[in-house]
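Researcher: We plan to redesign the surface later, but first we want a full-length starting point. Tokens attached.
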């Protein structure tokens, strides 16, 4: 008898729902997949709280997810929450409200556990190979960096420098293009806050950046749209982005205001602001560590949760 699983990732910016069916042979079929820009961290993340408006958006989205799961007769639900709920003074209260209103049990996971699950998701998407790679996952609340090979994780760390936090700190007026001064201040901030990453990269010497989901997905969509190619929704989760393409996209994103960014083919409205600060972080990482290639994994945390279920 097939089993139906729902995997929910309550991110700081985006809530994800993935519903899969596993048959007796362990073969999986995706039945449903969606992402909703809940912006749970908006307005409160740097104060360490979830605002009433964000709480309401989160509860409404999870109520919808519950209805979708019921329609698909889901048997097992795994829901994890990350940076915004992990660090919010009222996080526990929000989780209790979710349980009362939707019946969904949410597990708040540590940054280290988040990094571990992201790496498992990436492993499901691609052959990593014997040489170390640097995986980067840019969330709204935190950024995970993992260095690993096909054999597993060599080093991992979650840094509370996610895109929503960076927007609030360095780029508040997102209607305008970001200024060179703001970019400079943001790069200094990364330099200060990522010293442990610098030490780990020196030790393990990765040569390839693997971008996991989110912003990297959108950059791939922008690249395909610029070349009049539509991404196959059932295509490979292992994608690439040429360094020269990224540099061009980065330059363009720095120069455009929100209206012009929204007009870029392949751009998602839910990413239109965060993508700017996320790309500053990507550019800093590529330059700082002389990485010569970008690979993109369409899989991340929720697929890592699925990978663990498949192993059970």
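Model: Full-length starting sequence:
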């Amino acid at each position: 008898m097939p089993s139906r699983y729902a995997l929910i990732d309550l991110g700081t910016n985006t809530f994800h729902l993935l519903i899969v069916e596993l048959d007796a042979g362990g073969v999986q079929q995706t039945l449903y997949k969606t992402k909703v820009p809940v912006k749970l961290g908006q307005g409160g993340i740097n104060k360490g709280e979830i605002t009433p408006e964000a709480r309401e958006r989160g509860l409404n989205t999870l109520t919808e997810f519950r209805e979708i799961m019921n329609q698909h007769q889901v048997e097992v639900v795994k829901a994890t929450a990350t940076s915004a709920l992990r660090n919010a003074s009222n996080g526990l209260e929000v989780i209790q409200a979710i349980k009362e209103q939707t019946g969904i049990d949410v597990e708040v996971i540590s940054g280290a556990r988040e990094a571990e699950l992201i790496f498992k998701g990436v492993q499901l998407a691609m052959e990593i190979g014997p040489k170390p790679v640097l995986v980067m996952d840019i969330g709204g609340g935190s950024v995970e960096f993992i260095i690993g090979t096909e054999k597993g994780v060599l080093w991992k760390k979650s840094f509370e420098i996610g895109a929503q936090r960076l927007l609030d700190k360095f780029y508040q007026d997102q209607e305008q293009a970001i200024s060179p001064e703001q970019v400079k201040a943001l790069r200094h901030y990364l330099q200060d806050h990522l010293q442990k990453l610098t030490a780990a990269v020196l030790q393990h010497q990765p040569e390839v950046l693997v971008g996991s989901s989110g912003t990297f997905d959108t950059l791939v969509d922008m690249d395909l749209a610029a070349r009049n190619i539509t991404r196959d929704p059932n295509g490979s989760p292992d994608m690439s982005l040429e360094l020269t393409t990224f540099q061009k996209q980065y330059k363009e994103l720095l120069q455009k205001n929100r209206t012009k960014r929204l007009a870029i083919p392949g751009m998602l409205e839910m990413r239109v602001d965060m993508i700017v600060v996320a790309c500053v972080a990507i550019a800093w990482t590529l330059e700082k560590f002389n990485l010569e290639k970008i690979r993109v994994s369409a899989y991340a945390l929720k697929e890592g949760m699925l990978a663990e279920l498949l192993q059970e």
